[in-house]
Structure formats: structure tokens, C-alpha cells
Design a protein that fits this description.
This protein has 202 residues and is mainly beta. The strands form three sheets. Strands 1, 2, 3, 4, 5, 6, 7 and 8 form an eight-stranded antiparallel β-sheet that branches. The chain has a four-stranded antiparallel β-sheet with strand order 12-11-14-15, with no helix packed on it. Strands 9-10-13 form a three-stranded antiparallel β-sheet, with no helix packed on it. It folds into two domains: 107 residues, Immunoglobulin-like (Sandwich), CATH 2.60.40; 82 residues, Immunoglobulin-like (Sandwich). Strand 6 and strand 7 form a beta hairpin.
Length: 202
């Protein structure tokens, strides 16, 4: 897991919410956010916003505030849908007063980095009807072949075949024309082979 990142905002009686800390830590593929307020005045709540490299900010959640209180409050939010291909994500809080006015917090940054090993993830949705997403990751630039086979070992579709850069990537396969049944997604890097099962239903 990556170390947490912390920002400290000094106390001020002029602001509606006195933000004491804002932390982000990783747990597996999730990012867990926590923040604490020292006091709140007319606080409706916090919108949690996220962006990736070169992306725009978007709201991914909301936590209701405590209204008005002089007691410390702790809030938590888990981002369980971190963009798969991102190597860095940033978060901020948009605090909203009861009158609708908003204030942005400072940002916290989480460096996800490159994968430590090659991996083929289970396709989803599984079972699939119209399409399925194939996700994979490689720790360095290499030649990758990802092919889908049926239960008789016949090639159904080549998903990837060639050099790919280090990182995480995903491809969509169209399954609408495939016969219902069981298929195998096979990823090969040199002598290493990874296989995942995919079911297609109607």
C-alpha cells in the first residue's frame, strides 16, 4: 500500500468549516479518503471530486455535514471505482453551506504507479451478452498477445497482438455474434500465459 498524504489547514473563525486534515490511502485497487473537521457552521456536506492526469474534475460521492458544531467530526469515503488505466489520481472536497455557497479544499494526490507484475483480469461483465471488457497490466514495455478461444480451442478473436507500453490497459470485445457458451481469454507474454474464463449468454 502507498503511504497516506496529509494536508493541514490552520484554524480560522471566518470560515464555515475548519478542516483539520484530509488523507488518502490505497487498499488494493481502492482509494480510501478520510477527513476531519475541528468545527462546522451551517455545513450541508462535502462533495468528493476526482480527476486524473489531464482530466476534468467530476463528483464521485457526497457526505452530509454535521450542520453547526464545535466538536470534531470525522468523515470517510472509499473510491472503489478508480479509473483502471490511471497512474495518478487527485481528490478534493467541495464543501457546501446550507445557503448553497461552496468552498474547495486543497488537493491530495495518490500515485498508483506502474504495475509490479503482468496480470490478466477477469473479463466483465461475466456472463456477457453484447460485449465484455478485457483488462490487463504489464510492468514494462513488452509484446503481448491476447486471444479468445472457444471450448474446442478454436480462435474466436484476437484482442491484442503486438508491443504494448508499461501500465494498465483495457479492450472491449463484441460478443453479440458469438454462440452462447464458455470461452477462454488467453494472454501470452513470452513463455508466460494467463487465462481467464468468459461465459456468453442470451
Amino acid at each position: 500500500d502507498l503511504p497516506s498524504f496529509r494536508l493541514l489547514v490552520g484554524p480560522s473563525s471566518a470560515i464555515p468549516v475548519e478542516l483539520a486534515s484530509f488523507d488518502a490511502t490505497t487498499k488494493g485497487t481502492e482509494v480510501r479518503l478520510s477527513w476531519q473537521t475541528a468545527s462546522e457552521t451551517n455545513n450541508a456536506g462535502f462533495a468528493i471530486e476526482r480527476t486524473t492526469q489531464g482530466g476534468t474534475w467530476s463528483q464521485i460521492g457526497f457526505r452530509e455535514g454535521a450542520g453547526t458544531t464545535s466538536e470534531a467530526q470525522t468523515y470517510r469515503f472509499t473510491d472503489a471505482d478508480v479509473p483502471f488505466e490511471a497512474e495518478q489520481v487527485r481528490y478534493r472536497l467541495r464543501q457546501t453551506d446550507l445557503d448553497g455557497s461552496t468552498t474547495l479544499s486543497d488537493e491530495v494526490t495518490v500515485e498508483l504507479g506502474a504495475p509490479s507484475k503482468a496480470r490478466l483480469h477477469a473479463p466483465f461483465p461475466n456472463p456477457a451478452t453484447q460485449r465484455a471488457t478485457v483488462r490487463y497490466e504489464v510492468p514494462h514495455q513488452t509484446t503481448v498477445n491476447i486471444t479468445v478461444y472457444d471450448v474446442l480451442g478454436r480462435r474466436v478473436e484476437t484482442v491484442v497482438d503486438g508491443p504494448v507500453p508499461a501500465g494498465r490497459a483495457q479492450e472491449t470485445v463484441q460478443t453479440a455474434q458469438w454462440a452462447p457458451g464458455t470461452y477462454f481469454v488467453r494472454m501470452q507474454l513470452g513463455d508466460t500465459v494467463h487465462t481467464e474464463r468468459l461465459s456468453v449468454v442470451r
